[in-house]
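Aim 2, interim progress: modelling of the G4F-bound target.
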Amino acid sequence: MTNNKKIAMVSGVTGQDGGYLAKFLLQKNYRVLGLYRRGATDTFSKLREHGILEQIELLDFDLLEFSNICRLLKNHQPDEFYNLAAQSFVAASWEEPIYTAQADGIGALYILEAIREFSPKTKFYQASTSEMFGKVQEIPQTETTPFYPRSPYGVSKLMAHWMCINYSESFNIFACSGILFNHESPMRGKEFVTRKITCHLADLFTGKTTEPLELGNLNAKRDWGFAGDYVEMMWKMLQHSEPDTYVVATGKTHSIREFVEEAGRHCGYDLHWEGSDENEKGIDKKTGKVIVKVNPKFYRPAEVEILIGSPEKAKRVLGWEPKTDFKTLCQMMILADIERAK
Ligand code: G4F
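Predicted structure of the complex, ligand included:
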């Protein structure tokens, strides 16, 4: 019975996390209202690939349009609102700092205000990020680690994170913040480093290109998990008795270099590294071919050198654990891109 179904609103439904979360919620028998920004490129391809496009009710949404957000909350009174919409590419946030602050900081505040005014029973999930830890103050990072964001993106997300806590304490709104560490999948956008790597290696492997893969900082380390595992935590947070903040991570960290090596293995490459800094190259031992080279164009004005999160609270309080390890994730992504390249 449609009427008895819980209603979930998912902003950013056309993105990587939006697709996995919408699929998860449909399996839980929710009515999913998918909010998307008209004119976004590549709009519905991920939802189509998940096979759920027809099951989602799509609604126009813009993080910068307060009147639109108010109307949506007023008209639909959702049980749950998952705010996954954002300018999510860290590197772009130095080029578009003001837009990033408006979308990622003020946008979340608009939703909280609309909830406060028109739909106070709506439970709210905010997609916070390990980028808020930036220049990390302790290892591993937990819910109590002090923040030190290193990009306009990280600073903007930190504003939204604190607004969540503030609205929860001030107005009794059920607002949770999930501090998600990097999470990837075959649906990841190609601007992010993991998918950039697997797409390019798949093109090399299938002969679609002969050009080496160009990357920036190979030494940065990330705690990479699988997006499909992480969306379950978003939902679990909103089912708990109290709103709270949770780190969502695997507790393991790997460098960009290691990701390239691991994905490369599935293409038959055995990489060794020559040179240093911008002269470094990843060369296939068998053929002598240059597979990877560094291009300083991809360096960032301020780098987050290492991220590693502790999922201890997520396990202790909500019984959640990541299921997919680093090697399985690399394999899943490279095999999917080889298939697509063929
Ligand atoms: O894949 P990335 O672009 O992800 P980043 O910056 O860590 O951000 C992602 O994770 C955050 C959670 O921590 C999210 F909040 C955020 O929305 C996004 O999903 O870059 C990862 C690392 C960086 O250190 C970067 O400098 O890879 C390094 N890198 C090296 N070469 C590169 C490249 N990154 C990209 N995108 N492209 C390169 O060529």
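The chain has ten helices and 15 strands. Residues 219 and 255 are 6 Å apart (CA to CA).
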